[in-house]
Design a protein that fits this description.
The complex is a heterodimer of chains A (114) and B (114).
Chain A (H helix, E strand, L loop, with lengths): L2 E3 L4 E5 L4 E3 L2 E3 L5 E8 L6 E7 L6 E3 L2 E6 L4 E6 L8 E9 L6 E2 L3 E6 L1
Parallel strand pairs in A: 2-12
Antiparallel strand pairs in A: 1-4, 3-9, 5-6, 5-10, 7-8, 8-9, 10-11, 10-12
Chain B lengths: L4 E3 L2 E4 L5 E6 L6 E7 L6 E7 L2 E4 L8 E4 L6 E5 L8 E8 L8 E2 L3 E5 L1
Parallel strand pairs in B: 2-11
Antiparallel strand pairs in B: 1-3, 3-8, 4-5, 4-9, 5-6, 7-8, 9-10, 9-11
The chains are: A mainly beta (114), B mainly beta (114).
């Protein structure tokens, strides 16, 4: 069985603050992939990043960074200097090689106030 | 390159009526998914196709839901008859074949059953 937990239901920050979205996952597979998606009010799920279970190197893309720690089964997402356009629901998801479909967390709603 | 295209974007129907959703995946993507997203939750898989074969339909409520992908490209998801609890966003997604490939989503079809 696979499970993704996003304990933060909603986060509100003021523009330019840094914010970290937590993601904890469970799987028995040794090979798996982790994803983050952004869902703005329009509803489309926008792909942000994919990591495989063998690559624990942290990644930075502009104001976005991701911290993958296999020891704690976590894949956290940090937005530096948040902007109003970052306001959305963010989903963490897991895909194991056995079941080739994404298992999503319940999402974290981020509101960035001007 | 065009993304995943879905229609209709919005649909309001009375309970017990039928409804159908259509999806055109990204060109060259052999894997197609239908997900359902209830309000405030993450998407959940309904069915996954590899070409025209439904390889994972364990979560599809087969008494009222059906899906097809006759030529391995476009897909249709049907609900008959609809119930109040079917109100949700129905998301279509596609990917290249392979466990680690990224899954890309359409904008979704928002269904309200009254």
């Amino acid at each position: 069985a696979q499970k993704v937990t996003q304990a933060q239901t909603e986060i509100s920050v003021v523009e330019k603050e840094d914010v970290t979205l937590d993601c904890v996952y469970e799987t028995r597979d040794t090979t798996y992939y982790l994803f983050w998606y952004k869902q703005p009010p329009s509803g489309e799920l926008v792909f942000l990043i994919r990591r495989n279970s063998f690559d624990e190197q942290n990644e930075i893309s502009g104001r976005y960074s991701w911290n993958f720690q296999k020891s704690t089964s976590s894949f956290n997402f940090t937005i530096t200097a948040s902007q109003v356009v970052d306001s959305a629901v963010y989903f963490c998801a897991l895909k194991a090689t056995g079941r080739r479909a994404l298992t999503f967390g319940s999402g974290t709603r981020l509101q960035v106030q001007p | 390159e065009a993304g995943v295209v879905q229609s209709p974007r919005y649909k309001i129907i009375e309970k017990k009526q039928p409804v159908a959703f259509w999806c055109n995946p990204i060109s060259g993507h052999n894997t197609l998914y239908w997900y359902r997203q209830n309000l405030g939750q993450g998407p959940e898989l309904l069915i996954r196709y590899e070409n025209e074969e439904a390889v994972d339909d364990s979560q599809l409520p087969k008494d009222r839901f059906s899906a097809e992908r006759l030529k391995g490209v476009d897909s249709t998801l049907k609900i008959q008859p609809a119930e109040l609890g079917d109100s949700a966003v129905y998301l279509c997604a596609s990917s290249e074949t392979g466990a680690g490939n990224t899954i890309y989503f359409g904008e979704g079809s928002w269904l309200t059953v009254v």
